Amino acid sequence: MSQKFELFAEDRPDQGKGASRRLRRDGKVPAILYGAHRDPRALSLNHNALMHHLENDAFFSSILTVTTGDKSQPCILKDVQRHPYKNQVLHVDLQRVLEDEEIRVSVPFHFLGENTAPGVKAGGVVSRVMNELEISCLPKHLPEYIEVDVSDLELEGARSLGEVKLPEGVSIYGGEEMLDQPVLIIHRPRREEEEETEGETPEGEVPTIGAEEPEED
């Protein structure tokens, strides 16, 4: 991982809805830090600094550093609660990590060759079935993203999860039963599919278009 993210936090002695509202009015975000076999710790973060980090996609799949006073510890972002219509973060969940314990994280896919795939050149449309993958790994193996090469896909072709090359030390959360799931499909434009369906003749029936009318006696 090339990027490093640091969050400067303060302890949050007062809790509850009223205390959280006061924090937000002061430009801060209530947060909770938990995990690593230790008690949860209530914190507050600077809202503007947090919003700046959230603009970077890598922030969601990186090992973060939380600094409180003169102590720092690694963690991952587990949940962000946003205001339904304001550009505001309401609460953040952070999970401590230990270097010898696996973590579970959702990591985005980066697709390669979408515009140059034979199926696209033949007029096909790309449909991303999955945009991210939940993985398990040690913190040192956490990838910022997972590459999916689709440059060889033909029309009506699909790339399944089992065909995706995972980085070293990374496994799919959910096991082998996930491997057959499609990640990306290149299919014909919907209009063409509908036209082909409309033009099909039901099994057992003979087309009547252009059939001669019976002669009258």
Strand/helix succession? EHEEHEEEEHEEEEEEH
Mean pLDDT: 90
Largest sheet: 6 strands, mixed, barrel
- Overall morphology: elongated
What does this structure look like?
The chain is mainly β and 217 residues long. It has two domains: 5-98, Ribosomal Protein L25, Chain P (Beta Barrel); 104-196, Ribosomal protein L25, C-terminal domain (RNA Polymerase Alpha Subunit, Chain A, domain 2, Beta Complex). The chain has four helices and 13 strands. It has a six-stranded mixed β-barrel. Strands 10-7-9-12 form a four-stranded mixed sheet, with no helix packed on it. The longest helix has 10 residues, at 190-199. Mean pLDDT is 90; it is low at 208-217.
Layout: helices, strands, pairs:
Layout: E1 5-11, H1 17-25, E2 28-35, E3 38-46, H2 47-54, E4 64-68, E5 71-82, E6 89-96, E7 103-112, H3 118-121, E8 125-128, E9 132-137, E10 146-149, E11 158-160, E12 171-172, E13 182-187, H4 190-199
